[in-house]
Amino acid sequence: MRQVSCPAVLYNLLVKKFMEKVSSKEWWPVECGLDWPAPKDATFERIVGAVLVQNATWHNNASRAIQNLKNLGILEPLRLFKSDFEMLKDAIRPAGCMGRKLKVLREIAQLVTMMNMNRMDIHSLRQVLLNVDGIGPETSDVILLYACNRPVIPISTPAMRILERFCGLEAKDYVGWQTYVENNLPKDVRTYRTFHALLVEFGLNFCTKIRPKCEVCIIKEYCNYRS
Fold first, then answer.
1. Where are the beta strands (DSSP E) in the chain?
2. For the chain, what are the domain ranges?
3. What topology does CATH give the domain 6-36+153-222?
4. What is the pLDDT of residues 20-29, one digit of tens each?
5. Whole-structure pTM value
6. Could you tell me where the DSSP H helices lie in 131-214?
7. pLDDT of residue 170
């Protein structure tokens, strides 16, 4: 088993060997890292994107739905909340699961108009998000990290898979994985954003659930796993 510094080792390897291969259509290259593909101050757009990208891809699905909302002029909380249900449902159709995601978006839009997220601590804000039916731990933490600039790392399914294979470690649950990563990386928003993005893309392109591409993996010499 690798030492507890394993997440840091993995992070550095992915930055060095994989980051330049990540499509700019999926994540925005920024100074020394990657970020959500939306303007820095577009808080609500990032929240909406985090919901729409659930069980979907960004470039081919969620981003198209975002653009539809922009074209309608309703990518802001109050306008989205007051907009016609069927019109909204059609706008987010590219992202799939329209009915469920629309209910989440309308509730989130209402919450954003009623509360000042900047004044809430991480625990309280996460609890508010988790109380929305349809937002789980990963989505809440994506919102905290990318929209609210809080140093919380989301743990995606690809992240768990890569960490388990590369580090030779198993955690009991989402919180276990998150604690493991956060205890072994600098508590830094830029680092967390970059690592989350790299793990998602690496899981899609190399460390897949079925038939991982170990023979062409660019970090295979450092990995514990062999398919």
1. 28-30, 33-35
2. 6-36+153-222, 43-147
3. Endonuclease Iii, domain 2 (1.10.1670)
4. 999 888 999 9
5. 0.94
6. 137-142, 157-167, 174-182, 189-205
7. 82
